[in-house]
Amino acid sequence: MSQLLHLGTSFVPSSSTALRRNTISSPAIHISGNKRITIQAKIREIFMPALSSTMTEGKIVSWVKSEGDKLSKGESVVVVESDKADMDVETFYDGYLAAIMVEEGGVASVGSAIALLAETEDEIADARSRANSSPSSSSPSPAATPEKAVEAPQQAAPVKAAATVTVAKMASSTHPASEGGKRIVVSPYAKKLAKELNVDLGNVVGSGPMGRIVAKDVEAAAAAGVSFAAEDPKPSPSSAPVKVPASTGIELGTVVPFTTMQSAVSRNMVDSLAVPTFRVGYTITTDALDALYKKIKSKGVTMTALLAKATALALVKHPVVNSSCRDGKSFTYNSSINIAVAVAIDGGLITPVLQDADKVDIYSLSRKWKELVDKARAKQLQPHEYNTGTFTLSNLGMFGVDRFDAILPPGTGAIMAVGASEPTVIATKDGLIGIKSQMQVNVTADHRVIYGADLASFLQTLAKIIEDPKDLTF
User: Fold this and answer.
1) Burial class (CB in 10 A: 0-12, 13-18, 19+), 267
2) Which 3-state string (H, E, C) describes 394-437?
3) Please, what is the end-to-end C-alpha distance for the chain in angstroms?
4) Burial class of residue 91 (count of CB atoms within 10 Å of its CB; 0-12, 13-18, 19+)
5) pTM for the whole thing?
6) For 71, phi and psi rounded to 5 degrees?
7) Distance CA 333, CA 40 (A)
8) Which of 17, 35, 314, 333 lies at 20 to 30 Å from 295 by C-alpha?
9) C-alpha span between 28 and 233 (Å, rounded)
10) pLDDT, tens digit, 9 for 90 and up, residues 133-179
11) What are the phi and psi torsion angles at 267 (to 5°)?
């Protein structure tokens, strides 16, 4: 949540219960001598901001301020989950947070009201009455839908049983939402909720994607009595946990709605179908690149940075492959070579961008890449760090995948899929048999702008750079 964006606001008229964007509210009249001064107090609408060019709706992760709190211009008010990151959002105005219209976990369309800001403390009551009389523009996410406080007596037993199973699941030795038991993957709202309910996240099994802990997991843990070890009552035979086989945290047979990020990925993939694409593959010998990597790996250089650097240097000589077509009527020779690299993160996919990769030295590029990956996994990337790519790399080589095709991201000209480098038996030019490490790359390109000969020439240049990588460490 490193980026701070401003919350746009607008006035709410006193003559209507609908939330409109014009002037407002009841006047306060002051008499000074023979002069009658009328001061218009204002109630402003705080609406869901567009945090990226592809964002159509946002989810409220948490409210930093509570109803009735005094706000100052530039102060953080709410944390919003966009399609790519969680961001702190600021207010443009001084005033009071009079009414919250979209609760934590709720979803609202971009531009719809999520709260009301009163200019004076006297206007808070009026703002709240307006909020109560206006239809909500949000819809709660499934994970944030509150359970009924009172259930029928016959339903009490299943709830208790479910709690017991939850406790049993928490006995797993390696936490599903951790990496080797060290880092717990948890949504920001769930983390906040855990602090409020005094729940130890180390004992909670996540039900979200890849074992991520979400709000409902924390609530279930609180109901089951999983808290920090402030009290350690002696276990009785009747309270001994039931042994249950280790679970992945995924309940089979359930229908799971897309997260905000998954929805954005889905839209982009559908949009890509409108672009006429073609694919060209090439085999590149990597012995020299592998030797260079082993030599400079100890200095913090990554293979991703080496591939990005080699690709950028090849694009310098083939600017059409770095171009883009957005309207179907013209295309742009991009002035910068920004290499976007696909990264799988919890619940989705994002492409952090190595900007000006052709101009940055390999050591700085590697440091930048590590920084971007850390921010991506923490959902803290700023928009310019993921939406400014001009050419995309997708590398599955580390998984042993030898070849695959990638889908072209909308608004770019080409994407290159990189497979694993593997020892291969080949025939040398003198007729002998030898073994060389080779990798397969496949480029998917927009055929409206880039043609077969363009890609073939680009791949030849890329192969020369990788097979003789002396220019990568300048």
Assistant:
1) middle
2) EECHHHCCCCCCCCCCCCCCEEEEECCCEEEEEECCCCCEEEEE
3) 35
4) buried
5) 0.60
6) -115, 145
7) 52
8) 314
9) 60
10) 766 544 444 444 333 333 433 444 444 333 333 333 333 334 444 44
11) -65, -45
Q: Is 181 left (phi over 0), alpha (psi -120 to 50) or beta?
A: left
Q: Which single residue is written with the structure tokens 């409210």?
A: 63
Question: Which one is catalytic: 6, 30, 384, 447?
Answer: 447
Q: Is 384 a catalytic residue?
A: no
Q: What is the pLDDT of residues 222-268, one digit of tens each?
A: 877 755 544 444 444 444 444 444 455 678 898 988 877 788 888 88
179 contact partners, CB below 8 Å, separation of at least 6: none
What's the rounded Cα separation, in Å, for the pair 159 and 260? 30
The contacts of residue 114 (CB under 8 Å, 6+ apart) are: 46, 47, 48, 60, 78, 100, 101, 102, 108, 137, 138
Parallel/antiparallel/unpaired status of strands 339-341 and 391-395: parallel
Residue type, 170: M
Coil, strand or helix: which one is 86? strand
Task: Choose among 388, 394, 412, 346: nearest CA to 81.
Answer: 346
Q: How far apart are CA 441 and CA 456, in angstroms?
A: 12
What is the torsion angle, in degrees rounded to the nearest 10, for the CA atoms of residue 359, residue 361, residue 362 and residue 364? -110
CB count, 10 Å around CB of 425? 8
Cα distance between residue 446 and residue 320, in whole Å: 11
